[in-house]
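Why should sequence recovery work at all? Because a backbone constrains its sequence more than one might expect. Tight turns favour small or flexible residues, buried strands favour hydrophobic ones, and helices have their own preferences. The token representation captures these environments compactly. In the example below, the structure is given first.
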């Protein structure tokens, strides 16, 4: 927890210097509280760095493709000259990401995750998939992660400005 807390302090300190007045001074504290609520429900005082990273990536203002690539980087494993994501790693990623909507009572069941894994690996004979197959599956907007592109689109529309006048 202390490692994540230090990282969040640095992250938000940099954000405050880049965008003065736009970042709440307690942002790191609030974010840590959210991460603890999502990933340490039993009060162990421990949150996996990878889980916290997945949450921060998904809640970031980056593009969907950048988020998807970052997920792959955090959860995939090197296999010789290529990097692959296994069924087990995908299960961990989906379980971690499912904690975000679950915090507001919108999470899906474990069977949802298993169906998504089966769908992602449909027609794949190997035990793992390459990044392009993973990205292609995510672009198809699987039901288990439908909240992610929806939230992205909502946040993207906040920046839209129409020069129309209404009567």
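From this structural description, the recovered sequence reads:
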């Amino acid at each position: 927890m202390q490692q994540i807390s230090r990282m969040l302090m640095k992250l938000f300190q940099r954000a405050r210097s880049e965008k003065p007045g736009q970042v709440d001074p307690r942002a790191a504290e609030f974010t840590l509280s959210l991460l603890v609520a999502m990933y340490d429900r039993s009060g162990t005082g421990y949150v996996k760095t990878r889980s916290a990273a997945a949450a921060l990536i998904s809640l970031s203002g980056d593009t969907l493709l950048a988020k998807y690539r970052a997920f792959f980087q955090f959860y995939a494993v090197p296999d010789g000259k290529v990097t692959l994501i296994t069924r087990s790693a995908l299960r961990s990623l989906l379980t971690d990401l499912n904690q975000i909507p679950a915090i507001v009572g919108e999470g899906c069941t474990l069977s949802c995750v298993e169906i998504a894994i089966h769908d992602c690996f449909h027609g794949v004979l190997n035990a793992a998939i390459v990044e392009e197959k993973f990205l292609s599956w995510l672009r198809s907007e699987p039901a288990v992660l439908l909240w992610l592109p929806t939230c992205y689109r909502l946040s993207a529309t906040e920046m839209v400005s129409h020069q129309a006048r209404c009567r």
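A few observations help interpret the result. The mean pLDDT is 92.
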